[in-house]
Specification:
- By secondary structure, the chain is mostly helical.
- The protein is 39% helix and 0% strand.
- The protein is built from 6 helices and no strands.
- Helix 2 (91-99) packs antiparallel against helix 4.
- Keywords: GTPase activation, Ribosome biogenesis.
């Protein structure tokens, strides 16, 4: 067996190409522009330039995220006057505060002297008189002269009346 010396050259693999002189040139296709992906360079630093060129007629939207509510930089020393309804611990305290109300007393004196009251003053008087009447009924106080005569009756009947009155109280009115 004859021996062949090993070589690093590789023989032809596959089919050979035709010589360059005999080849047909590939048809020239028209060049087309590549689609660009993303935004052009510099848009991060100059966002108003690109948006103003593309849509000049639209109103520009504020690019900031979050609340647009203005924050006062100077703090006012005087607090805003806020009228809060006083809360009372018992009906007796509320009744006492109504009876000691100076404005209410002055308006009642005007009514007694038959002076005309404004619409707001009448509403105020009506509101307080209605609440005063409710509290008097709740506490068992009556303005009638006959109440003194009823107090002289038997002690059992007044105890039963007080118990019935206590059971009829609606606790939700005091919340």
């Amino acid at each position: 067996m004859p021996r062949k010396k090993k070589s690093r050259k590789i023989g032809q693999i596959g089919t050979p190409l035709a010589p360059k002189a005999n080849r047909k040139p590939a048809p020239a296709s028209p060049k087309r522009n590549k689609k660009t992906l993303g935004k052009p360079s510099g848009t991060r630093n100059n966002p108003e330039q690109t948006s103003s060129q593309s849509r000049p007629s639209k109103v520009q939207k504020d690019p900031r995220v979050g609340s647009k509510k203005p924050i006062p930089l100077i703090v006012d020393d005087k607090p805003k006057a806020r009228v809060t309804k006083p809360k009372f611990f018992s009906p007796a305290q509320e009744l006492e505060s109504i009876e000691q109300n100076e404005r209410f007393g002055m308006l009642l004196e005007k009514l007694d002297s038959e002076v005309a009251l404004s619409r707001e003053e009448r509403a105020f008087v009506n509101k307080l008189t209605a609440r005063h009447q409710e509290l008097c009924d709740l506490l068992g106080i009556s303005n009638d002269d006959g109440s003194m005569a009823d107090a002289g009756n038997s002690e059992n009947s007044t105890d039963d009346d007080l118990y019935d009155q206590f059971e009829s109280i609606d606790i939700n009115k005091f919340k």
